[in-house]
Each structure stands twice: as C-alpha cells, then as structure tokens.
Amino acid sequence: MNILFTSLWTVLLLGRMVRLQQLQRRDILNYLLNSSAYDARIAPDYEKDVATEVDVQLFVTSIDSINAISMDYSMNVFLRQTWRDSRLNFSHISNISVLELDQRRIDDVWVPDTYFQNEKSASVHTVTVPNKLLHIYNDGFVIYSIRLSLTLSCIMDLRFFPMDDQTCSIFMESYGYSIENVALKWNPDDPVIFGLDDNDEQTLPQFYFYKPLETKGCSTVNSFNTEFSCLEAKLFFQRNLGFYMSQVFIPSMMIVILSWISFWIHVDAVPARVSLGVICVLTMTTQSSGIRSSLPVVSYIKAIDIWMAVGLLFVFAALLEYAYINVQTRKHRKQTKDNERDKKSMQIMEPQTKTDFMDRARRVDRLSRVVFPICYAVFNLVFWVVYLSK
User: Of 1, 8, 134, 314, which residue has the fewest beta carbons closer than 10 angstroms?
Assistant: First the structure.
C-alpha cells in the first residue's frame, strides 16, 4: 500500500513539474511572488540567522558641481545592488534564465534599504517612468539598479584655497537592518565606475582627480548599540588653478605694478598721483570682496586672503609714500615763501631748504622704484614656494 501511495505521489509531482516547465513568465512571477509563500517584508536569509550579503556598485554618470560655500557636491549615479534570494529560485520549474520585472512589480520583491549617510538632498529620476530595474535569475540571483541625483555633504579645508585639494566621501549604509541581517560589500571588480572617462579621470569645471579613489567597508553603531553595515568611497579632488591665475592672481599683480607708476610721476602732479593710488586701492578692495562672496565664512586665514591682503598693503603703501612726498614738498614751499619775505634769510637758507626737502622727496621716489618691486618679488617667491610645495 505504501509503495502504491508513493508511486501515485511521484506521478502527481512529475505531472506538476511538467506543467510548471510549460509556465509562462507571468505565471512564474505569480508563482514566485505568491503572498502565501513569499514575503517581501523579510530579508532573504532572515530565518536562517545569516546576513544577506549585498554587492554594491556605483556607476557615476556625471559630477555636476562642487560648491565651497555650502560644502557639498552634486552627482548623478546608477546605484547597482546584487544579492541572492533562494526564495526566488525557479530553475526547477522553468528553463528561462532571467525574469525582467516591470518597475510596477518591483515593490513585490525584497530590496535592501540602502541610504546615503551624508546625503543633503536626493531624487529618483522618473522620466518617463521611475528609473528602476530588477532582474531575477533562475538561481535566485537578483540585480537591482536605480538612477539617482544626489547632493552629498563634503567638509572642506580651505586654508590653501585656491591651491587646495579636497577629499569628498560617499557613505552608504543599511538603514533598518543590522549587520546581522544585511552586510553591504563593494563590488570586488569595479566598485565605482565613471561613465564619461575610461581612465576614471573625469574632467570637472574647477577640479580634477589627482589620485585614484579609495573604497572600503565599515560599520557604525547607533545610540541603541546596534551595529550597521556601511560602505565608504573617497574621491580626491585637486582644484584647477588656471581660472584663478587668469581672474585673480595676474590681475591683482597688474594692479600692484600699476600703483608703482606714481613713483615716476613728478612730485608736483598731485591729482595724477592721488587718483592713481586711490583707484588702485579701490580696485584691490573690490576684487577682494568679489572673491570673499564666493567662499564660505570660516574662522581661519586662507591663502587667497594672504595674497589679497599683501597686494592691498603694497598698493596702500604706494599711496602713503606719496603722502610723505607731498608733505616734504609742502614744507619746501612753506619755507620758500617765508624766505621771500626776508631777502637776507633767503640768500642764506634757500640752498639748504631745497636740499632738505625736495632732494629728500626725490630720493624717496628713486628708492621706492627699487624697494617696492624687490619686496613684492620676494613675497611672490615665498608665497608660491610655500603653497605649491604642500
């Protein structure tokens, strides 16, 4: 009797298997995602007390901006995650190799709750439909991809600005599942791919990658002493100095040099020398204000602050130099007028007066023509050696 019952049961199972082999993709999905047998709210290995390993890969399509004021950067990425869910194994019922799910059925499948820890704002692309992809292979292997626009925070050190380099990180973590249930792993072959450059040296408006990125796994512990799996990718940016050379450094150098022209203008040309000095000072002040408006307010001194402050100091010193010259010439005129009232005093003191004041003024002008350029050249040498050799 037992043999007869076993034979009948075997025949029924074989008949069921034959029917399943002839199932269409829709039928297979309905069979796999049957609510009574599959629960999308539970991780694949939850009942086994084993962590589900999720393989993560980032495909970066563009890095749009790196903002020093808000200390963040924006990028467009494809977040690709793969894992194995034995509950979705259908190799025993069909010869179909892979099932491609419509984005409307993705919610019926368990997916990792990965989020970006340093994300300030993000959005899923929805044109013309939500940009999500989920493929299920016959052995239970699942591929899940989603297209995102991200704005991630990046704490920047601007002491060497604009000769600075910045390290910006991408942090990903499982939000609700502890490390005992979900373990995030970087893709061992290509953890982060840049889609616009085969050499991973994507050109940015103001930055470039000065060394390859670094990836590592990590873990975090929240206030409830629960440990979560996380991933970190470090991007190393070097600021492109070309823009600041053409828009800041060279123009400010020209303004400083322009202020030295007053040393060759006659001491009696008061309007010319004063106007030149005042214009140079105002120009340097305006340029410095424009630069500060594009940078955050920080408590430390930046390299660009030193450059602009010293440039303004040289321009202001040239204006003060003429103030000293003007005082000497007025003293000369005053004593000349006093001597004209007394012919006898004029004959004795006039040669001495001209030597004391007019010659002194001319000597200061001649000395300034040499001292100012030498001091500014020394400053340039020290400035560029210190900040470019870091």
Answer: 1
